[in-house]
Amino acid sequence: MRVGIVGCGGRMGLMLVREVAATPGAILAGGTERPGAAGLGRDLGTLAGLDPLGVAASDDAAALFAASDVVIDFTAPAATVGHATLAAETGTALVVGTTGLSAADHAALAEAASRAPLVLSANFSLGVNLLLGLVRKVAATLGDDWDIEVLEMHHRHKVDAPSGTALALGRAAAAGRAVDLDAVKDTVRDGHTGARVPGHIGFATLRGGDVVGDHTVLFATEAERIELTHKAGSRAIFARGAVRAALWAPTQPPGLYGMEHVLGL
């Protein structure tokens, strides 16, 4: 499978280059960077600390989509929407791990998915996707007298909050209770807020150091508490899952998929 990587010079992009190079059945078709980026023209293997792979970083996304069976995108919302348009035009499968997407961005990706297979996930690790299922089941089992809080911590460089994974966990909890997350979501508490609103799902965000990603969903009621936690020790788990999705997506018809489809959960 010919795999292309947009944003190939970033931390996640380089991790993806290494993962594709190490995966049987995957061939690195190429990678792109922003115009003017320092890595342009350099061999992707050299950039990733590997032996040369014979493929250089470019700034031509259209050419990358034309040369690939599937493209992996962990960039920024505006760039991802543009890449989704290219996927729709070429019929190339797209795997998206970009976070911070707006409702309009999600609508644009859904439109592109009508013409090409698109896998969208806030988190590509197996553990997190199992956690999503557990959270939904626990929320569905416990009554409304159990408060739900989502706590997440990431490295100091992360620009969006709450994290995409935290929001996905909140959506899983809301789905378990058969409610709309937007109607019960509390993402900011500051000053004299009054008592906690019954039935709401709260979010707390921490930033600092080099934390790859810690997520905990707390279910709390009188005299007892349940905590479901996942801690990521390396971005390699995200790259591994994304490449697994990349090998799966081109064999599917156009449509919008999640990791639950890739993993058969």
Write the layout of secondary structure elements.
Elements: E1 2-6, H1 11-22, E2 27-32, H2 44-47, E3 57-58, H3 61-67, E4 70-73, H4 77-90, E5 93-96, H5 103-112, E6 117-120, H6 126-141, E7 147-154, H7 164-176, H8 181-184, E8 185-186, E9 201-207, E10 213-221, E11 224-232, H9 236-248, E12 255-257, H10 259-263
Parallel strand pairs: 1-2, 1-4, 2-3, 4-5, 5-6, 6-12, 7-9, 8-9
Antiparallel strand pairs: 7-10, 10-11
Helix pairs in contact: 1-9, 3-4, 4-5, 6-7
What does this entry look like structurally?
With 265 residues, this protein is of the alpha/beta class. It has two domains: 2-120 and 235-263, NAD(P)-binding Rossmann-like Domain (Rossmann fold), CATH 3.40.50; 126-232, Dihydrodipicolinate Reductase, domain 2. Helix content is 37%, strand content 24%. It has ten helices and twelve strands. It has helices at residues 11-22, 44-47, 61-67, 77-90, 103-112, 126-141, 164-176, 181-184, 236-248, 259-263; strands spanning 2-6, 27-32, 57-58, 70-73, 93-96, 117-120, 147-154, 185-186, 201-207, 213-221, 224-232, 255-257. The strands form two sheets. It has a seven-stranded parallel beta sheet with strand order 3-2-1-4-5-6-12, with helices on both faces. It has a five-stranded mixed beta sheet with strand order 8-9-7-10-11. A hairpin with a 2-residue loop joins strand 10 and strand 11. Helix 1 crosses helix 9 (236-248). 41% of the residues are buried. The mean pLDDT is 95.
